[in-house]
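DM from R.C. (forwarded with permission)

"hey, sorry to bug you on a friday — could you get me a structure for this? deadline for the figure draft is monday and I only need the backbone to look sensible"
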Amino acid sequence: MDLRNIAIIAHVDHGKTTLVDELLKQSGAFRAGQAVAERAMDSNDLERERGITILAKATSVEWKGTRINIVDTPGHADFGGEVERILSMVDGVVLLVDAAEGPMPQTKFVTAKALALGLRPIVVLNKVDKPDAEPDRALNEVFDLFAALDADDDQLDFPHLYASGRAGWADAGLDGPRKDLSALFNLIVNHVPAPRQQARAEEPFRMLATTLGADPYLGRILTGRVESGRLKVGATVQALSRLGEPVERFRVSRVQAFRGLAMQEIDEAVAGDIVTLSGMSRATVSDTICALEVEEPLPAQPIDPPTISVTFGINDSPLAGRDGKHVQSRVIRERLMREAESNVAIRVSDTPGGEAFEVAGRGELQMGVLIENMRREGFELSISRPQVLVREEDGQKLEPIEEVTIDVDDEFAGAVIEKITGPRKGELLEMRPAGAGKTRLIAHVPSRGLIGYHGEFLTDTRGTGVLNRVFHGWAPWKGPIAGRRAGVLISMENGVSVAYALWNLEERGRLFIGPQEQVYQGMIIGEHSRENDLEVNPLKGKKLTNIRAAGSDEAVRLTPPVRMSLEQAIAWINDDELVEVTPKAIRLRKRHLNPHERKRAAKNAS
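My reply, with the result:
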């Protein structure tokens, strides 16, 4: 069967996964009347809850005798390690752009990777049926983006379609019939080249492993595209590392291919197809699975380095061990090492003392997703504030810089510009009207300056602003950046909080807890209205007397406490504070810095 391998790339919430749903339906991948969940490709619980794609996943459809393997890629740069590997498996990309918003930072990030690999994109302007859609402006912005990313003449001469993924249609013109996606299917078949690997079917078998999975019955599962040759079930092959060192030999126990949403066993893998293999015990991502006579590994795509690090430690608070079942540092280390093995964008290292582990990654969202997955698995952790990773080149200290794109109502633009260019050391590059009473700001801001800024940004814009960020590059150190100014309210007692005590503490600042909650000495229960930390007693009840007077027993009415999400808590804390994460709770507490940490905190402050 004729083959096409494509990846669909887009910014978060531009309709990528919804479009894949319609491609599956209209190709006949589902039988008539079959119950299928919305956003079928987002199979992970966190993906469904947050409405974003975190893990790259493949599927395949058939269209008029051609099998099209489709890879759904993450739309957020924090999961870019997935994108870089996945693009090496495909021969073309479909770039999905919201006709109202135009190309956004994450679009730029993934598109740059695709163009660098020489892939010729198909541009689909999605959501053209929205009231604020401006497809012509969005198309011009896409062309300008390609030109800025040094696209060649073939890539700049890209075909484009107008579409509505939710309504299930795509047409070459805005005044088309708006019936189905046949125009997109035909364009993929005619524009995307067939895998060049098909011409190497008689060479020895070679495949680059791009994703790693696990199955309770099959063990490790590696997915990749067959670069040359054929492979039958039961054959003995070897795994070579990036450097060409032998990793292991193993017998292939099962070969599976993507057919619709399901995995189907096949007898033989052929050059050009995307398949999964089982039977290995040590082979991992970026290894070359090949015939025994092959000596040279396939080149693996370089992965962008991590930009922030977070320290994962055991939960040593007085409430430790009550909610979770995985609390030992040994078990935490094993879980983090498994994550680093399957996610090449993460690096794990031991800290002095061995009780905590430094995890380096792409951003706060990536760290938040990892921590959230671990707490759902029953882990208890203590998490430090994120720290940016710095470089030294030619004796100069460099730090990561991010390109920030902000859409705000016109009236709030001044406040946002003041915050990002003042205390956060950002540099404003562009300011232009975005239509509908909004202004678009583009700035280069140090990663340090963005840690903890999102909550402040939402307050400044009354919740109406949208902030997107993507790694831009490295630049000389910008000097000290002030952190959170407000102090904290710290519990001085162990026990259960009392409504009367909290009522008296409300004038001191915002509270993070309600009545009848477990607290302990050193736990942060609120944000102080002033800059200093304040120890308070949330257990102090009302003194009982035999005197009754009018108004002495008025009802205690408490303001609802502020409940931070995991990402908000991690970004909010200071260097001398920790986030305590358990399957049932997220708490904040003070900690005592050891000499190594105190030295690092002083270095960061300078």
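R.C.: lifesaver. Residues 35-42 have pLDDT under 50 and may be disordered.
me: no worries. The chain has 15 helices and 35 strands.
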